[in-house]
From TrEMBL:
Similarity remark: Belongs to the prefoldin subunit beta family.
UniProt name for this protein: Prefoldin subunit 2
Single GO MF descriptor: unfolded protein binding
Any one Gene Ontology cellular component term annotated for this protein: prefoldin complex
Organism expressing this protein natively: Liquidambar formosana
Length: 148
């Protein structure tokens, strides 16, 4: 009896429940995408800082924000810490990418199991690509036509 209750909990009871679960899965996927993007921006900021302070004299003073407090340090002290932070962020991004792929597989399996098809997204993607190609061709052709 306990296994039957667990099975009922795992299986959606109607189409609305399937749609709700699918929506929640898509929301989680979008959250992982946005977190990866946010962390990639931080990595690029760290790279900019490393690139800016690396050629400077290691004994030169610099300031670093630690927990909302601006602290005076030397480049010699700050550079390794910034590089470690960047490496840590890159590791987190790698783990999030793995989680993203796992979530994509889960969604694909869910779509296959419940035969979910999204027609609007496919149509919009095709329409957008067609419009982009058309507008790009128009831009390229415009000056050539004007010179004739």
């Amino acid at each position: 009896m306990a296994s039957r209750i667990e099975g009922d909990r795992n299986e959606p009871v109607n189409e609305q429940a399937v749609a709700n679960i699918y929506g929640a899965m898509r929301t989680e996927l979008n959250q992982v995408y946005s977190k990866i993007t946010e962390l990639e921006m931080e990595v690029s900021e760290h790279s900019l800082v490393i690139g800016a302070i690396q050629p400077l004299d290691p004994s030169r003073r610099c300031y670093r924000m630690i927990g909302g407090v601006l602290v005076e340090r030397t480049i010699k002290e700050v550079l390794p810490a910034v590089q470690r932070n960047k490496e840590g962020l890159e590791e987190v991004i790698a783990r999030l990418n793995e989680a993203l792929e796992k979530k994509k597989r889960e969604i694909a399996e869910f779509e296959a199991k419940y035969k979910i098809r999204i027609k609007k997204s496919d149509g919009e993607v095709k329409d957008d690509s067609g419009r982009k190609e058309g507008s790009a061709q128009g831009v390229l052709v415009g000056p050539a036509g004007a010179s004739e």
